[in-house]
Amino acid sequence: MDKINMREAIDHDRRRFFSAAALTFTAAELGVIGAARAEPNPATPPVIKARTNTSFGPLKQIDAGVLNVGYVELGPPSGSPVFLLHGWPYDIHDYVEVAPILAARGYRVIVPHLRGHGSTSFLDTATSRSGQQAAIGVDVVALMDALKIPTAVLAGYDWGGGAACVVAALWPERCTGLVSVNDYLIQDIAHAGMPLPPRLEWGISALNSISRRNEAVPGGPPIEMISRASYGPTNRPPGNSTKRPFSEATLHSTIRIMLMW
Amino acid sequence: VVIHSYRHRLGLAPGYPQYADVEAKLATLPLITVSAVTLDGEDNCIIPASDGRSSAAKFSGRRIHHRVPNAGHALPQQAPKVFADAVMEVTKPV
């Protein structure tokens, strides 16, 4: 038993390592882009304050559906429940500042690591490692069942916003309210091969152009806006190294992937 | 999980059979009938901010949309108070 526990502890450390590495990769790349352009830009850079709270208390674990879910819980147990669902490539720490605000306002706040993240693991190693929107939505319902929470507010962005939308749409009797960043996030997979509307392709072409030539697209967003907009300064490592420890192909596939939600 | 997520999202990998029913329902792009607050970070270059009208038809219940200045895609990190306020707003009785 001790051996098993030890192995799990190591796996979690490994996962943290890889997620930190992925985060550094994207953040470093965007930071480099911002620093590479010397001329002044007419757009006023957004002011994004550094976070003041950086950690949660101890994690809880509970079996829910096909997972053992790691989560934090804040606020009074009798409070109105709200689930805060994180994005990729982040984890529950998306909500280190949001969660205490809501707890102080009397909500029972539950912040789970989604499948593939943090201390959440599959109960059976043979379970398929699905990442599809249905699976992540079903996980949320299973967690609500495991915690015996019949209804809750579901709030999220990116992967978590998608999951919140999935549950709100298919299990409205479980959802008393939806907070979603970027609106309706249920994926139209049948049309995934079609071009996106122009305003969305705008972002893709701009990022591709910058990643190739460190140049902005005429008519597209200014480089500084792209480099700092999506990921705040709190996640950007210091330094402006222009060394890329990855291939051009990796960069492009990753940017393409980043844009999908 | 991550690789399958994006491959599936792009239509490049099949879903798993145990989720076929749920995925079939999602493929109809079902309406969201519950009360909703939606937020768009004005500095989000992954998904540019909108006025919410393009997705309005997908929300059949009460829906409030806000554009959020000085925030990008990872909005809960960048505008935590706004996000927390949205939770309050969505639970507020009409």
Oligomer: heterodimer
User: What is the rounded Rg of chain B?
Assistant: 16 Å
Q: State mean pLDDT of chain A (0 to 100 scale).
A: 73
Helix content of chain B: 25-40%
How many angstroms separate the termini of chain B? Answer: 40 Å
Describe this structure in words.
The complex is a heterodimer of chains A (261) and B (94). By secondary structure, chain A is α/β, with parallel strands linked by helices. Helix content of chain A is 39%, strand content 14%. Chain A contains 7 helices and 7 strands. In chain A, strands 1, 2, 3, 4, 5, 6 and 7 form a 7-stranded mixed sheet that branches. In chain A, helix 2 links the parallel strand 3 (81-85) and strand 4. The longest helix of chain A has 35 residues, at 2-36. Chain A is globular and about 45 Å long. Chain B is of the alpha+beta class and 94 residues long. Chain B has a two-stranded parallel ribbon. The model of chain B has no long low-confidence stretch (mean pLDDT 93). At the A-B interface, helix 2, helix 3, helix 4, strand 7 and helix 5 of A face helix 1, helix 2, strand 1, helix 3 and helix 4 of B. Strand 7 (175-181) of chain A pairs parallel with strand 1 of chain B, so a sheet runs across the interface.
Features:
heterodimer; A: 261 residues; alpha/beta; 7-stranded mixed β-sheet; 7 helices; disordered N terminus; B: 94 residues; alpha+beta; two-stranded parallel sheet; 4 helices
Topology overview:
The complex is a heterodimer of chains A (261) and B (94).
Chain A: H1 2-36, E1 60-64, E2 67-74, E3 81-85, H2 98-104, E4 108-112, E5 121-122, H3 133-146, E6 152-156, H4 158-170, E7 175-181, H5 198-213, H6 223-229, H7 248-258
Helix pairs in contact in A: 1-6, 3-4, 5-7
Chain B: H1 2-9, H2 20-27, E1 36-41, E2 63-68, H3 75-78, H4 80-91
Parallel strand pairs in B: 1-2
